[in-house]
Each structure stands twice: as structure tokens, then as C-alpha cells.
């Protein structure tokens, strides 16, 4: 038994290694790079240090989502192994829970330790950055999540209602720790965990552990069955997402349609559920619970809602890209999945089928997240009543704000998701590491050259040209790489000449129009640099139309 758990633990650590490094590196390097850039540009953001607590909830939300995503990715690979181990169910379930809890605790301690070294002073735990309370809460939340996850194999409407109520009550209890004097008083850090709070969290953890082990045992023994009402609802939901027609005579499908449905059910379906449904709920919960933080003005709250939705959409784009991108390769990324690689379709038809599935998944995910934003507005209307239309909210301004941020959200989501998928669909681990190394290495080189030129040539006229040349390196590489991808894709007949011409025309027109409205007067070198960065950002919109066919063909013909 010990040897089996040891091998499983070793496999879990191997699966989680890269994700953990990437998660901690992202959370630490993001604020650090922002600080370095502001210092190099001579900007003064010292006032941000006066209110570090204002970023505490943002850190908690982002770190919890990233760390739990890392755990889910590792557990997905270990789940089948754990179900077949010659070990009692209670031991396996306990190991799964403890492995997840230990990983999240370690990642939180490492990240907060780095923050202490880089950003915080010696009074950080008591003054503005509580650690023990949120750590105990996320531990309890993970155990409750395990219980809910294994109970999802035998769901019913009553249980789902109970789980939703439990999660809402837990988050309400957690937020109330920051308002010890009531919600009308000022928010304060949860710096001291009382004995009652500690006992409450431990009690919930023990109950969740016990119920989770029971649910896991039922799943392992094969007696976990959904209720009849839930099964009927599941048939309807699958029909809605997959287009399958339940209880109907079989209809002959074309090869391309059959492949599209298989690929959708294999990877895209899960991506829509996790990236769309879960983030829709997250957007709704964060907007309604944090609307007081956006200000007393209704217009400020509405603007806060769309910004939160945009941020969560970008995070969802990463989750969707990881799930869809990893879905085409077999375990270990040694080859493309057999049913995809051996499908009786030409490369162009194969690429187009998977590409349209990706677009469908992105559109559904964005619609679900926008549904969370609409529900947030409905919740505010319900809470405020008819007085909402008599306040300071101008409907024309509101509509313009919504349209503007929706366009930003769609463009940002597509750039992140499509370009990440184009990298992941190559199916080669060394290529992933190369892209990450090029990005961070290029950024480090940029920062080093900028620092050296700032130190030695600050008063010289050559400084502006050196700095401009360094800044232009990144956009020129992006544009040049995209042009090269289109040339290679056309030469290999993965795209048509009309596709390349339309993409080029759209890029040129959008770049010219954007630069005309953003930088009408090219009187400074900063305006010229801004034009190149805008052009590079816009070229990433059309890049996947060439890189994805190349990536799929490369992966398919190993």
C-alpha cells in the first residue's frame, strides 16, 4: 500500500511541477515587472504602498483560481490511477485531499514569502496582508470542493441547491471576517483568527472530509447514480451543447461532422463548462459581493462590473486554452490522439473542423461570462429597486461603456486563447518551454538594455534612439513572425491566398484607423512606438488563422 501511494505521490508531484512554477512565477513576476517598468519610466507610484490592503482581495481571487487550476490539472491525470489502487477508498480519498491542500498551502507560503521579500515590510501580517485566516479558509474550501466533486457523480436538484447554499454561506462568512463591526463600518484586515473561527473551520473541514470519503467510496464501487430528474436534465443540457438529438432515430453524419462532435465532447465541452459556467458564477458572486468597494455611485459600480468581467474573461481564456490545447495530444504529449490523427480527412478539412470547434467554444464561453454580467445588473436592479433609474446612471453612457469594454474583452479573449492554443496544439513540450523562454528572456533582455541605456546615456541624445530601438524589437518580432507564419502556411497549402490577403487587408485597415484615432499627430517618438505596439497587438488577432493550421499539421504528422 505504501509503495502504491509513494508512486502516485511521485507522479502527482511530476505533473504539478511545471504548473506550480508557472503559477508562482506569474503571481510574483507580474507586480515585480510593473514596479520595474514604473521605476525605469520615472513614474511615482509610491502612493500604492500606502494602501496595500486594497489589493488583498484581488490577490486572493487570482491566486486561488490559478492554484486550484494547477491542482485540477494534476489530479485529472492521477484520478484513474487512484481508482485502481489496491488501497482502501478512505485512504485514497484522504490522500487526494491532503495532496491538494498541501500543494495550495506551499504555493501560498512561497508566493507570500516572495511578496514579503520584494514588497512588504515587517508588519505586513498585522497591518494589511492577513495570511493565516485566508489560508485556513481555502483549506476548508478545498475539502468542501472534494466532497462536492465526488458527490457530483450522483447529483440531484436537492443536493445541488444545498451545495450552492453551502458555498454562498461560506463566502459570506469569510467576507464577514473583514467586517467585525458590521457591513456599515470600515473594512479591516482579518489579522487575528479567534478560537471560535478556528474551531468552526476545522469542524466544517472534518465533516467535508468524512462526506468526501463516503462519496469517493460510492464512486469507486460504482453505486453513485444521479437522480432520474437530474438524468433527464442532463440529456437536455448535452443536447443543447453538442447538438445531439436525444431519443431520435440515428441520422447518418458526414466524416467532418462526426469528427467535430467527437472532438467537441472530448475537450471543448469541458472547456465551456469550466471556462464559461464557473466564471459566470464567479463574475456574478464577485460583482454582487464587492459592489460597495467600487464606490457609492451607481455609475462607478457599473464600471467596476465590466472591469471585473473583463479580467475574469481573460483568466477564463487561459483556462479554455489549456483545456482545448491539451485535448488534442495523448498522455505525455508523445503523439496526437489516435481518433484525431487517424481521422479520414485531409489536413485542411481536419484543421478547419478543429478550428471552428475552438471558435464555438470561445463564443459560448464569452456568452456565458457576459450572462454573469447581465445577472449582476439584474441583481443590482433587484437590490436598488426602481430608484436605479433616478440616480446618476445615464443609460447612453452605460450602453457606450458596456460596448467599449465588451469589444476589449472579445479582442483580449481571442488573442490570449487562440494564440495559446496555437502553441499547445503543436503537442511538443520543448516548444512550450522555448516560447516561455523566449518571452521571459526577451523581456529580461529588454529590461537590461533599457536599464543600461538609462544609466549611461540618459543625458545623451542617443538614449532616445537606443530606447526606441529596444522597444521596437518586440513588436517587430511579433509582426515578422506572423508574416513568416502566413508565408509558410501558404507555401504548404494550409491556407488559401484569399485568406492571407483578407487577413493582411484587415490588419492594415484596423492598424491605420486605430493609429489615426489614437495618435493623430506623430510629433513625438513615443507616438511612433505606440503605433508599432498597436500594430503588433492587432496582428495577434489574425495570427492564429495561419499558426493553428501549421501547428495541427505539425502535430498530426510526427
From TrEMBL:
Residue ranges of the TM segments: 20-41, 53-75, 87-111, 131-150, 157-175, 187-210, 271-292, 304-328, 361-383, 395-418, 430-450, 462-488, 500-519, 531-552
Keywords from the UniProt entry: Membrane, Transmembrane, Transmembrane helix
Protein name: Uncharacterized protein
